[in-house]
Amino acid sequence: MDVSELKFAELIGGEEFLEVGLNTVNKSAMNKGLSNFVLVLYSNILGICILAPCIFIFYRKRTPPLLTWSTICKISLLGVLSYAGQICTYIGIGYASPTLASAMADLTPAFTFIFSIISR
User: Fold this and answer.
1) How many C-beta neighbours within 10 Å does residue 39 have?
2) Is residue 90 exposed (0-12), middle (13-18) or buried (19+ Cβ within 10 Å)?
3) Cα–Cα separations (whole angstroms), residue 32 to 8, 24, 83, 91
4) The whole model's pTM is what?
5) What are 44-53's pLDDT values in tens digits?
6) Can you give the residue range of the structural domain that contains 28?
7) Could you tell me which residue ranges the EamA domain spans (predicted)?
8) Nearest by Cα to 26 from 85, 109, 86
9) Is the pLDDT of residue 23 over 80?
């Protein structure tokens, strides 16, 4: 195994630990009365605060693509589906354990592979 492959495996393992920790913290916050909608809103705002500076740093020299009506509709649909998916995930964490939510998230690549084989 190459050193770069080992570092990649360590990053993936670290991401899994962070995901389990995040699900555990979210479960405890929901048990103390935090609404699912507020939790998703806070996590999306935190993501924007982390990723927005990266956009200005790495893409400042590129000209942005034109925003057509079709592109705006696709971005809006993606946002609504993502928000609904996060709400469903946090509702599921409220009913079950954070471990189950992490295990279900680990199944996503397998389902993606199966659907890609079916839809060829």
Assistant:
1) 19
2) buried
3) 36, 13, 22, 14
4) 0.70
5) 899 899 999 9
6) 3-118
7) 25-118
8) 86
9) yes
Tell me how far CA of residue 59 lies from CA of 17, 32, 64, 76, 78, in angstroms: 30, 40, 9, 22, 22
Q: Residues near 23 by Cβ (< 8 Å), separated by ≥ 6?
A: 93, 98, 99, 101, 102
Cβ pair 98, 107 in contact under 8 A:
no
Check: CB of residue 115 under 8 Å from CB of residue 68: no
Task: Report CA 109 to chain centroid distance, whole Å.
Answer: 13
Q: State the residue for tokens 């509702």.
A: 91
Question: Number of structural domains, the chain?
Answer: 1
Mapping DSSP onto H, E and C, the string for 21-87 reads HHHHHHHHHHHCCCCHHHHHHHHHHHHHHHHHHHHHHHCCCCCCCCCCHHHHHHHHHHHHHHHHHHH
Q: Which two tokens stand for residue 31?
A: 């048990």
pLDDT higher than threshold 80 for residue 5: no
Q: Amino acid identity, residue 49?
A: C
